[in-house]
Write a structure and sequence with these properties.
The chain has 278 residues and is mainly β. It has three helices and 17 strands.
């Protein structure tokens, strides 16, 4: 999918680019597969702001994506490739033989009228889903389950792919897009292919307003705040943070400080992302 370059009709358009949407074959979503999105403006159930710099944004409908692919053995036809405002990847509308309709992530090479199926003996073709135990080593997959039957959780962003490296003792070794090597049960389902819309990373917003359309409000640097508002605040003129490392507004280490602490799943990580970390 080529990137559309805008004419410099204004300063905001001069450095902006966007999608050409050449691969989109259906403009309006399937109404039965959408739900309205409630605007919470970064607030939790208590009404207090739990995530800063969120709010506003254009109205949008949430597309219900079938990550579980639990229609085992039922073939489906790709009816359309659609745009999803809630994710970077494109989605495909599938009409199943039993009359059901569902959305899946659209991988590279998926075409309208192509047949897809989720089954243990499904062909190794983009869009088909099958257990990792039945996928050849070296195949690129996406939407990989972390637990059998839970639905695809790994590898769902535009242009990403997970490579199946090896299979041993009921586990499959996966190389994640970050470089991390992780084990999952080989009974977990995965979808063949690379997630489409890889050019997403090349799009330049060009102006602040396009970020506001996405529901992101402005962020203020801590160094320009007062000391009461941020650990980096205070001082005359441009001043350093005044401490060994940067901190969050609540005094926690930030920018490079490793915060992952999931001892329950650490045993499944063979190699961490980065320079050979374990």
């Amino acid at each position: 999918m080529p990137i559309r370059q805008y004419k410099p009709t204004s300063p905001g358009r001069r450095n902006a680019s966007g999608y050409s949407f050449d691969e989109i074959t259906k403009k309006s979503p399937e109404k039965s597969l959408t739900v309205s999105k409630k605007q919470r403006a970064g607030r939790a159930t208590t009404g207090r702001i739990s995530t800063r710099h969120r709010g506003g944004g254009a109205k949008r409908l949430i597309r219900i994506i079938d990550f579980k692919r639990d229609k085992v053995g039922v073939p489906g036809r790709v009816a359309a490739i659609e745009y999803d405002p809630g994710r970077t990847a494109r989605i495909a509308l599938i009409f199943y033989r039993d009359g059901d309709k569902r959305y899946i992530l659209a991988p590279n090479g998926l075409q309208v009228d192509q047949m897809v199926v989720a089954a243990p003996d499904a062909p190794i073709v983009a869009g088909n889903a099958l257990p990792l135990a039945n996928i050849p080593t070296g195949t690129q997959v996406h939407a990989v389950e972390m637990q059998p039957g839970r639905g695809g959780q790994l590898g769902r962003s535009a242009g990403v792919a997970i490579q199946l490296m090896a299979k041993d003792n009921g586990y499959a070794l996966l190389r994640m897009p970050s470089g991390e090597m992780r084990q999952v049960l080989d009974g977990c389902y995965a979808t063949i292919g690379v997630v489409g819309n890889a050019e997403h990373q090349q799009v330049k917003l060009g102006k602040a307003g396009r970020t506001r359309h996405r529901g992101r409000r402005p962020q203020v640097r801590g160094s320009v705040m007062n000391p009461v508002d941020h650990p980096h605040g205070g001082g005359e003129g441009k001043a350093p943070v005044g401490m060994p490392g940067p901190k969050t507004p609540w005094g926690k280490p930030a920018l490079g400080f490793r915060t992952r602490n999931s001892k329950r799943t650490d045993q499944y990580i063979v190699r961490r992302r980065g320079k050979g970390r374990r």
